[in-house]
């Protein structure tokens, strides 16, 4: 009696297609399991069920079209093999996504085949499902790595980065609209589920085919394993990479090690954050050499070293810095500039802000939450602690409650709702920097007060996607910001800039020029003999703009009219003017707080936590 399960029922005796040569006669499969033998079709009882009816139709089609059925079987099997091998060899960066990278022998495929061939039917099915789910995890983390490397210049961290996904969705919503953000979130979930379904189905398919052709599959696995070991032992390469690959297992192992290390680092950081060089310094011994000065700390979004040195962005930004230096010198100001290595890259600006102000290396969200929930002394809080300054924050990017203002030591916070802006948003940025600075002058800096002012200002116009961009208008024309409506309407669309790397670089450079011009013109217009401005970038722009392998350095400048202020930092050996030289000193961003406090007369009194 013929067996109708060979090649998934694609061949029948007498149809001109050879039977499976490794399959014993009498319905006995190579794994020792008996297959039910039957006449060409289920019995009357089975055919009355929907499933039986469907199987009857399917077998009838296969019987009538054996060549088509065989071709479909081979195509499906080949596709399953391509999917599995592709998942095992998929790189985690876009530049590495080349055809040559898939010309490898993955050890995980050989091991998987050996395991499948050793198992009976039901355990084999379970193993295939688990293997497919493992491929889903591997594919997902590789795709996340691609995205994180493209935008943040680093791989995905499973222990720390899930908290960033809601922020990513909020960014897409602010940039491209709520509908796009929702569609992207739903699409991501559907994509993961689809990958899981496809990978599990492909794994089951291959496991079934291998089991049905056990003798040939065993020989093939032995040959592949021998070739893999030989290539590995001899270090043989092809297209610039090793032929013997274990990329899949290596990727999962790297993520596991990264997760474990991150958890260990977090435990150590909790202890570190409780110790502070200036934790017990009396108020009278904090910043005595700045008493009477209005001190302003300003962060310019995404103002990185690439803006000053990249051949596309640097010419325009360099001219702006040179022109601004001359304008400020004419107004009586002098400047010194250097470099800081940021704790973040491409995004998560608050990590750069908190690292600079706290003196701790805060390079992930968990560290940020840990330190901001404690009482570690920030540079801004040091001013508040003295009692000699009023302390305020001006943050047009904040659109809801921001409890960190207490940790930063701010007496008053002015966010996007407090600055009186009635003009249009410019993509993510709620208002142009020029308007934010004018509102700061009108509502805070320009008012008479009993104490000098320490201000913490975050400028946002240079935030990606750099479209549409604001333009400078007359300072007396700013009003409530409505003047920007026509400029916003005539600007580029965010979607057009996001998809064009060259355009993104050009528009990024323009945004930095705008922010620098806004700030330096504000200082020229409203600065006094007692004004001290410290401004810097929070991080480099995304890797697609700053370039692969770009540093994490950002420019930092200190500007003042009083020569005694700059005399205090003469030992820093910073470059004169607003543009730091290529070989100007480079410090870790976390070292800035202590250097600044010491330069202006603060006395260390450590606390151990």
TrEMBL record:
Gene3D superfamilies assigned to the protein according to its UniProt record, in alphabetical order: Alkaline Phosphatase, subunit A
Every Sulfatase N-terminal domain range: 401-542
Compositional bias segments (type: Low complexity): 37-53
Keyword list, A-Z: Membrane, Transferase, Transmembrane, Transmembrane helix
GO molecular function ontology, one term from the record: transferase activity
Residue stretches of biased makeup (Basic and acidic residues): 26-36
Name the record gives this protein: CDP-alcohol phosphatidyltransferase
Domain of life: Bacteria
InterPro entries associated with the record: Alkaline_phosphatase_core_sf (IPR017850), Sulfatase_N (IPR000917)
Species of origin: Streptomyces qaidamensis
Transmembrane segments: 71-90, 102-119, 126-144, 183-208, 220-239
Taxonomy of the source species: Bacteria, Bacillati, Actinomycetota, Actinomycetes, Kitasatosporales
Record's keyword annotation contains Transferase: yes
UniProt region (Disordered), positions on chain: 1-53
């Amino acid at each position: 009696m013929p067996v109708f399960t060979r090649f998934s029922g694609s061949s029948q005796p007498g149809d001109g297609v050879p039977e499976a040569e490794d399959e014993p006669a009498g319905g006995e499969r190579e794994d020792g399991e008996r297959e039910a033998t039957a006449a060409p079709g289920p019995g009357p009882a089975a055919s009355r069920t929907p499933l039986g009816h469907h199987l009857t139709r399917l077998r009838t089609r296969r019987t009538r079209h054996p060549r088509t059925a065989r071709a479909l079987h081979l195509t499906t099997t080949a596709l399953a093999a391509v999917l599995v091998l592709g998942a095992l060899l998929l790189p985690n960066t876009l530049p590495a996504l080349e055809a040559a990278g898939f010309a490898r022998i993955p050890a995980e495929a050989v091991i998987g085949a050996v395991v499948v061939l050793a198992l009976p039917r039901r355990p084999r099915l379970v193993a295939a499902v688990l293997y497919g789910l493992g491929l889903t995890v591997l594919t997902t983390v590789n795709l996340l790595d691609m995205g994180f490397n493209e935008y943040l210049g680093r791989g995905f961290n499973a222990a720390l980065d899930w908290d960033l996904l809601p922020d990513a969705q909020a960014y897409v919503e602010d940039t491209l609209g709520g509908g796009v953000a929702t569609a992207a979130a739903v699409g991501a979930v559907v994509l993961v589920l689809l990958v899981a379904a496809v990978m599990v189905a492909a794994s089951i398919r291959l496991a079934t085919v291998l089991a049905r052709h056990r003798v040939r599959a065993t020989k093939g696995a032995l040959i592949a394993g021998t070739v893999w070991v030989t290539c590995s032992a001899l270090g043989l390469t092809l297209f610039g990479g090793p032929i013997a690959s274990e990329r899949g297992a290596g990727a999962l192992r790297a993520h596991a090690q990264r997760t474990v290390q991150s958890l260990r680092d977090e435990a150590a950081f909790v202890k570190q954050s409780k110790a502070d060089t200036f934790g017990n310094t009396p108020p009278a011994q904090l910043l005595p050499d700045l008493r009477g000065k209005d001190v302003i700390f300003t962060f310019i979004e995404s103002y990185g070293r690439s803006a000053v040195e990249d051949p596309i962005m640097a010419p325009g930004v360099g001219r702006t810095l040179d022109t601004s230096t001359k304008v400020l010198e004419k107004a009586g100001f002098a400047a010194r500039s250097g470099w800081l290595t940021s704790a973040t890259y491409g995004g998560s600006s608050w990590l750069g802000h908190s690292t600079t102000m706290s003196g701790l290396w805060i390079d992930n969200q968990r560290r940020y939450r840990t330190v901001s929930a404690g009482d570690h002394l920030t540079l801004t809080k040091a001013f508040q602690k003295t009692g000699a300054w009023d302390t305020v924050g001006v943050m047009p990017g904040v659109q809801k409650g921001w409890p960190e203002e207490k940790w930063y030591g701010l007496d008053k916070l002015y966010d996007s709702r407090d600055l009186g802006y009635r003009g249009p948003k410019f993509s993510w940025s709620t208002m142009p920097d020029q308007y934010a600075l004018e509102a700061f002058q009108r509502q805070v800096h320009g008012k008479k007060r009993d104490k000098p002012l320490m201000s913490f200002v975050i400028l946002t116009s240079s935030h990606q996607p750099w479209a549409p961009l604001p333009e400078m208008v007359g300072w007396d024309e700013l009003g409530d910001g409505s003047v920007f409506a026509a400029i916003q309407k005539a600007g580029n669309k965010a979607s057009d800039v996001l998809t064009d790397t060259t355009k993104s670089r050009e528009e990024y450079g323009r945004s930095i020029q705008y922010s620098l011009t806004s700030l330096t013109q504000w200082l020229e217009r409203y600065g006094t003999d007692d004004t001290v401005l410290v401004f810097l970038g929070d991080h480099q722009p995304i890797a697609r703009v700053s370039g692969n392998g770009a540093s994490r350095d950002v420019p930092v400048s200190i500007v003042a009219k009083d020569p005694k202020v700059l005399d205090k930092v003469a030992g820093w050996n910073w470059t004169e003017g607003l543009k730091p030289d290529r070989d100007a000193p480079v410090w870790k961003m976390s070292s800035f707080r202590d250097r600044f406090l010491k330069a202006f007369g603060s006395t260390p009194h450590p606390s151990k936590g």
